[in-house]
Amino acid sequence: MTPGMESAFAAIRGDYGTDCLLRVERMLEPGGGGPRHPLQKAAKWILPGLSATPWHDPRGYPELTPLVEALESAHPAVKEELTAAWAGRREAFSGYEHYLMRQEDWQALYLYRRGALVEESAGPAPTAYRVLKEFAVDTGKICPLLESHFSTLLPGAVIAPHSDLWNFSINLHLAVDIPDGCSLTVAGQTRSWQEGKCLLFDYSFEHAARNAGERPRTCLLVDLWHPETTIPERRALVALITEIRRLMGDG
Question: Where is the Aspartyl/asparaginy/proline hydroxylase domain (predicted)?
Fold first, then answer.
């Protein structure tokens, strides 16, 4: 650990007690904090003690239920605004930049990125921007290390099987516009989105998606803290990943 990380961890222990970061410390040990599920092996960090469950009930956590209900209630307006933006403000979308790849047939309109709301997105997507701000950003549910965006897969697009970097955040999808022939596979189990409803899954497990339909498929994705993480752990993880990114020259 760098002196900066050690100082940040010491301050957190001072606020919350000497044992508050034991799981984070175990994660950083050789071997990554213990055994992991075979379909999580490609993830870089696994915080021990979190449920090794690929699919989660979107209403299974009281912390997240208000956001889920607000997004689903707002779906008609969100879809109408998204449709208008796709037709008339295509410049607001760009090829999605995943840490493993960039895909031009995977388009994104970012609402939250690099630890802050993307104010420009309030124009083309005012309802989604408002709900995200009120129920995820202002409440601290969003993981500031990651993002929220409209994810649009063009017809024929395939996202190859992969695992994301860690398990301490979790991915919420609001199904905005879903043609027939679209699917999401997580840890070998394939589901389809139900328009207007949310899905919640742990993307440290291997997952893949495809649009075999005849028009674009769009979901609103929100990267949230895993509800089983604690406040001191979240603080420590932000300090840790921010410092690692700085050392790697990645902001």
Answer: 73-227
